[in-house]
Amino acid sequence: METETKTLQEVSSISEMKEVALSFRKKSLTIGFVPTMGCLHEGHLTLVKQSLETCDRTVVSIFVNPVQFGPDEDLSTYPRQLQSDIEKLEAVGVDVLFHPTKEEMYPAGHKTYVQVQDITEHLCGTSRPDLFTGVSTVVLKLFNIIQPHNAYFGEKDWQQLAVIETLIQDLNLDVVLIRVPIVREIDGLAMSSRNRYLSDQERQTALFLSRSLQQARDNIRQGTTSAKVIRNSIRQCLLEKGGVEIDYISICDPKNFKEKEQVCGRTLIALAVKVGTSRLIDNCIIEEF
Ligand code: AMP
After folding, report:
1. Whose CA is nearest to atom 11 of ligand 1?
2. Which end of the chain has fewer CB atoms at under 10 Å, N or C?
3. 233: domain range?
4. Which atom of ligand 1 is nearest to the CA of 182?
5. Are the C-beta atoms of residues 20 and 146 closer than 8 Å to each other?
6. Catalytic residue flag (residue 44)
7. Closest ligand 1 atom, CA of 191?
8. 28 and 125, same domain (yes or no)
9. Which of 185, 168, 195 lies closest to 277, judged by CA?
10. How far is the CA of 190 from the centre of ligand 1 (A)?
11. How far is the CA of 107 from the centre of ligand 1 (A)?
């Protein structure tokens, strides 16, 4: 039996991307969209495969969005590997890759930024004040350009998902947000483009993120409910080996990110730490019990 081989259409101009999206819409084809910053791994490809299974056409964007990086962050060293990303997208059968330049997305004179309030003032928003305005702005621009029916986002960036959910709701966007659970390496490390910065030793240290979350889950299952006790045991676990700088350990409401004193009802445990020069995040949800 012959299998259909698809060619990946590469688009870098906004006007061409809009034409392609319009041609899909005119044929009543559903568009699935996966925004990424590239350096693709199995986590990204899991989102892509869900779109391929559900939608008639899948568009992936690769754009390292300068607006979401603070002045002291890793914009210039963020990993970029377009050619191997293209091969990965071709191999799974993606229809369109949109990879604009920063001048295309933010030409001189760009003045508009989108700010979701309140939920952005916790967790990553505290230590990365530019992050969510940058994310909301670029995602809204990408939605306007690509006109997706469905957009796929990973639960690894739990707070980002909440921000996009709010953006869609508040601005009455006709996009269905699809949440995809965290994809992990066999040893538990949450997949991330930034993992490639890690030395062998740092990678061993990074394993303590998922291990400390697992330990917290076990403690809660055994009856511990005090957020303070759980936070301390996570801190101990993370600091045991050295080489970790903790940004936050949050035990909070998964919708509004307010800290909890007791683990009761649905609870998010979210971590951000620096291992070497890499800022890593991980999280888990404690379902109501
Ligand atoms: P990024 O390229 O890091 O901006 O990620 C692009 C999308 O992939 C975001 O929606 C992320 O949440 C998602 N993603 C990244 N890593 C993972 C992972 N390990 N599991 C699930 N989704 C992920």
Report:
1. 154
2. N
3. 193-286
4. 20
5. no
6. yes
7. 19
8. yes
9. 195
10. 10
11. 27
User: Helix, strand, coil % (nearest 5) of the chain?
Assistant: 45, 20, 35
Instruction: Calculate how far, in angstroms, residue 109's C-alpha sits from the geometric centre of ligand 1.
Output: 30
Q: Is residue 251 part of a domain?
A: yes
- Are 100 and 240 within one domain? no
157 assigned to some structural domain: yes
Give the pLDDT score at 241.
82
Other CB atoms within a 10 A radius of the CB of residue 288 amount to 7
Q: Ligand 1 pocket: which of 157, 210, 279, 284 to mutate (most atoms <8 Å of CB)?
A: 157
Q: Would you tell me how many other CB atoms lie within 10 Å of the CB of residue 124?
A: 24
Q: Indicate whether 50 and 84 sit together in one domain.
A: yes
Summarize pLDDT for 58-116 with one digit per residue, the tens.
999 999 999 999 998 999 999 999 999 999 999 999 999 999 999 999 999 999 999 99
Is the domain of 151 the same as that of 201? no
Beta carbon of 193 within 6 Å of any ligand 1 atom:
yes
